[in-house]
Structures are given as structure tokens and as C-alpha cells.
Amino acid sequence: MAESKRQALTTKNTAKKKNPVPDFDLASLAAKVEDEFSGKDPEKKEASKPKRKVVQATSFDDLNPIDPQIPFNRQFLTTGLGISPENEKGGGLMGKFGTNVKGLIGTLRSQEMERDEIVRLRKMVGNLKKTKIEASAKPKESELTGESLPQELKSKRDLLKEKRKKIKQKSKEKAEIKDKNLIGLRIEIEKLKKKFPADENLVVLDAVLTCRDGCLPHRSIDERVVSLSAALREAGNVVINKYLTTYSIDILFDIYFLYLEALSKLCMDRYRKVSTADTRPNPALVSSIKRDIRVLKILMDQQKLKKTISNIAQKLNGFGYPFVSMTPMFVAKSFSESAGNDNEKIGPGTYKLNKFLIKIYLSIFAQIPMFQPIASKFCDALPSDDYQSKVMIANVNMDNGYTQLKISKATNDPAIKKQTLSLYNYGSQFVKSTIKNNANSAAEGRIMLRTAEMAEEYGFLTDKVEPEILRFGYECASLALSFYKEEAEAIIRRLYEIADIRKINLESTD
């Protein structure tokens, strides 16, 4: 018996060593830290407590899972593609051997297109800035328009309708010509893919054409979602894994938000059909669709981030950033102790511009679930002993957790209180151990602001809150005032409201 226990323990420890430290996950972190601040006795049995039926938890359990088409988590690109973590990392002896052989062959035939040719193709394909998700064209019922009447008997209204019809016909003919041009471009890109199999730029251009084809007026909303999903996965996997150029990321963000827009219209159509059906609608189904729409709204509200990415792409267009990928190696070198002077060239640009770009990318990618793997990749490349890097990584983790929390709120997840507490705990531990209650930059102030916000939210969510949580939240908000005045003042005001109700002195050190 003792031997079997020892073997089980050895197996468990071996498994821990094999598995790397998981990415920051708010839900799993919440389960670990709840008891630390809630005042519960871990040894006390739950059965001894009076049980109370929680309606929120029951309704949450009754709902259908969130639609897997919605990119609400970091696994979106690999979900539904049949890629297991082992296959994704090339697990197993044969997997590693195959990856090495493929890498060797890739090195031998890694010929890429000339930059002038890439520029020419990009101009021909164009971008997606003016592409819109419009309502699908529906056949109208026949009307008495007076078209059969003689010209002199037609009313001004009939003449105006005829004129509009002619204009629409001309625009349709132009669209058909444009479609033929797109077909010609696609054929050319497919030929170039065979000639330059290692050139990821061609995959991105192909995704642009797929996206534009899916947005044509005659497409149904279902067809648009399928096309845009294919384009997003095609471009997303290449960009996230290999081709992190300012051009490819700009294109990927355009595809991503077009896809969200199409998906929102599809969900609204589903909701209308279900809620207006002749038979009595299924309450769980209606609530599930409404929940999905709320999750999509959270993702759609991040449109301002797309503009930031677009502005960055334009500002850095004169360097190598639209063509040279920002690899983890360039990230590591840019922030290493042996880094050269600011204007010295490295990778796609200079040390100074690389740092500028990486900071912005980390801030944006951490907030969008689908792009969080890129943020994690950059964080892994940053030097662990560099103070600035530590602050950047902490901001990434808090932004990541904050987005997860917002989605949990939209879905009425019963674990909201635990997640809020765990995010506060992460921030407070970092402030105490690293920043040491002295914010000297906006990045440090942002961590303090978020920590204070979590303290304030947790105070509203629970009847019993540790006074130390509110006091530390107040301290963090006060230190963040010089960087985020309005937001910090609002948090301080709400903290005083909670403290007044709980009879807690925020400024006390006891």
C-alpha cells in the first residue's frame, strides 16, 4: 500500500516536471487563492453550512456552451482543426524527427519573393479598410412601378426609380469586372505559392481575397461567416506562428473585426428567428443566443485597438517592419543588457523602434483573447531579470485576466467573485514585491489602477471583505492618481462608499 502511494506520488511529480508552467489563466488562479482572503477554514466541511439555492448558477448551467465560432478564448485558432497540444508542439519522437526534416527542407528551399514583387502584389490585392459587411440582397416582391406606361405618362417617382435601377445595374457590372480581376489575382497567387512555398506573405494576400470574396453582396450571412472564418484561421495561424510583420498584423486585425461583425449579424438573425417563432421558444436557447451576443459586443467594443494597429503600420511603413517578421529572437535582443544604442539596426528596424513596437503589441494582444498567444510568446522572450520586462509581463497578465473577467460577467459566470479576488491578489503581490508602492511610470501606475479597481469590485461583490483589501486598493488608487487621474478618483470615491457601509477606515494602518 505504501509502495503504491509512493509510485503515485513519483508519477505525479514527474508529470509536473514535464509540463511547463501554464499560461496565465484567471479561472484556475481563482480556485487557488479564494480561501486566502475569504476567511474560510479549508478543513471545515461544506456540508455543515446551510445550503442556499443560487438561481444564477442554475441558469448558467442550463445554458448551451458559447458558440465555438466566437473567438472568446486563446484556443480559437486551434479549436476545430483537430490539432492536439502534442501535435501542435511536434510531440513524440517521430513528431520531432518530422519537424526537424521539415525544417531542414524548408531551409534548403526557403526562397522568398523579391520585395518589389511583394509591393506590386500588395497594391494589386489592396486592403480591407473599405470592405463592409452589408445586408444580403433579397429579392423584392413585384410592384406596379409604371414601367409599362409611355414616357410622357410616367410620374417623377417612376422616372427616379428607373434612374436608380440603371445606376445599380452599372455598379453591378463593375463589380462583376472586379470579381474577374480577383479570380485572376487568386490564380496568380496560387502559382506563386507553388514557386515560393516558404513565403508567408502569399498566405496573407490569399486570405484578403477570401475575405473580400466572402463580403460580396450576393453572399448570404452564413456564407460570409464561413468565408471570413476560413480567412481568419488561414491568416491567423501563419501570422501568429511565423509572420509577425506590421502589414500582416494590420490585415489580420481587419479580417478579425469583419468576422466579428458578420458573426454579430448572424447571431442577431438567429435571435430574431428563435424569439419570433410560431411555437413557444426554448428559454435556454434564447438566453444562450443573448449571452453570445453580449460576448460578441465585448469583443466588438475593442475596435479602437484596430485603429492603433493601423496607425502603427502607417508610421513604421518606411522601415523593414512591413516585410521582416518580429521574431522572439529580435524581442529578446532588443531588451537584453547587451543591446546596442537606440538607433542601431536590429531585425526589421532599430532598438528604439523595436521596443516601441513590442510595448504597443503587448498592450493590444493581451486584451484580445485570440491574440493572447502572441503576447505570451513575446513575454517568454523577454529577459526575466529586467525590471522593465517584469512590469510589461505583469500588465499583459492583468489585461489578459481583465478580459477574461469581462467575458465571465457577460455570461453570468458564478465564478466572478473568485476571479475578481484572484486578479486583485495577483496585482497586489506584484506591487508589494516589485513596484514596492512607488509608481514611477504609466505602466506601473496601470498595474496599481487595475489592482485598486479589483479591490473596489470585490468589495461590492461580497458582504464580508477584508479591510486590508480595501485599504490596499485605496493606496494603489492614490499612487496611480498622477498617471490616471479621472479613473483613480472614481475608484477612490467608490472605495469610500464601500468603506462607509462596512465601517472601515481606509486611511488607517491598523
What strand line-up does the widest sheet have? Answer: 1-2
Seen as an oligomer or otherwise, the chain set is: single chain
Average pLDDT, rounded to a whole number, is 80
Major sheet, described briefly?
Answer: 2 strands, antiparallel
Distance between the termini: 51 Å
String of helices and strands: HHHHHHHHHHHHHEEHHHHHHH
Give the % helix: 55-70%
Q: Which residues form runs of ≥5 with pLDDT under 50? A: 8-22, 33-58, 82-109, 137-149
Shape: globular
Total helical segments = 20
Number of strands: 2
Sheet-strand content, in percent, reads under 5%
Structural class: mainly alpha
Radius of gyration: 28 Å
In short:
The protein is built from 20 helices and 2 strands.
Would you kindly provide a written description of the structure presented here, covering whatever features stand out?
This protein is mainly α and 510 residues long. The chain is built from 20 helices and 2 strands. The chain has a two-stranded antiparallel ribbon with strand order 1-2. Helix 9 (221-241) runs antiparallel to helix 10.
